Amino acid sequence: MAEIVFNREQTRLMAQKIQRYLEREHQFKLGDFDAEFLLDFFTQELGAHYYNQGIADAIAQVEAKMENMVDTLLWLEKPVHN
User: Fold this and answer.
1) pLDDT tens for each residue of 58-76
2) Can you give the pLDDT at residue 3?
3) Which DSSP symbol is given to 76?
4) Greatest extent of the chain over all pairs of C-alpha atoms, in Å
5) Are the C-beta atoms of 18 and 30 separated by less than 8 Å?
6) Entry's Pfam families (predicted)?
7) Alpha helix locations (H) across 1-82?
8) C-alpha closest to that of 18 among 3, 6, 53, 1
9) What is the C-alpha separation between 43 and 54, in angstroms, rounded?
10) How far is CA 56 from the centre of its chain?
11) Which sign, positive or negative, has the C-alpha torsion 36, 37, 40, 45?
C-alpha cells in the first residue's frame, strides 16, 4: 500500500478540526504543531483501517454493478431453437 499523504491545505484543515473537537468536547487546547503531530499519528496508526474499508466498499460497489451488467447481458440473449 502506498503511504497516505495529504497536501498542506488538507493537513491544516484536518488539524484545525482536531483542535476544535478537543477544545469543544474536552476543554483541551492543542497548538497547531501538536495537532499536526496528532494527525500524523492517526494517519500512520489508523489510516490503513479507513483506507482498507474504502477499498472494500469500492469493491462491493463494483461487484454490484458487475452483477447488474451480467443480468443485463443475459437478458439480451436470444433463444436458440432446436
Assistant:
1) 999 999 999 999 999 999 9
2) 87
3) T
4) 80
5) yes
6) DUF2164
7) 8-26, 32-75
8) 6
9) 15
10) 10
11) negative
